[in-house]
Specification:
The protein is mainly β. The protein has a five-stranded mixed β-barrel with strand order 3-4-5-9-6. The chain is about 5% helix and about 50% strand.
């Protein structure tokens, strides 16, 4: 399954995320429930091989890559894009989501240079609104 991730990274590129306390989608203030999480902007995510933090992201699903018994999707916010690997049902392209997960680094050595990138291993989908 993960042997496809480097290929996806090369084909679709990737982006990297600022923390803010954001209400979940559908809250009384127009975003979600009354609960809030500290959402990190994609641009603020660490891009190195030591990236293993647990973070929460909010954005729109722009691409899907279903795999057998799992899949991946690309999430975009106003600051960038990142690939998310999930064992849960994939959100549809266009859906707005708030998710939590652990950052991972996929090494992609090409011509003696490290072209790897950070992706998110999703652990929970907190909110999902269809567009």
């Amino acid at each position: 399954m993960f042997y496809l991730l480097p290929m996806c990274a090369l084909l679709f590129g990737g982006g990297l995320v600022s923390c803010s306390n954001v209400p979940l989608l559908g809250s009384p203030n127009g975003m979600g429930s009354a609960n809030t999480v500290d959402v990190t902007a994609i641009r603020e995510l660490p891009s190195d091989q030591n990236a293993q933090e647990v973070v929460y992201l909010q954005g729109q699903v722009i691409t899907q890559a279903p795999f057998l018994n799992s899949g991946a999707y690309q999430l975009e916010d106003t600051t960038g894009k990142i690939w998310v690997v999930s064992n849960q049902e994939l959100p549809n392209v266009g859906d707005q989501v708030v998710i939590g997960g652990q950052l991972q680094f996929q090494s992609i050595p090409i011509g003696g240079q490290e072209m790897g990138e950070v992706y998110l291993q999703e652990t929970e989908q907190l909110e999902r609104n269809a567009e």
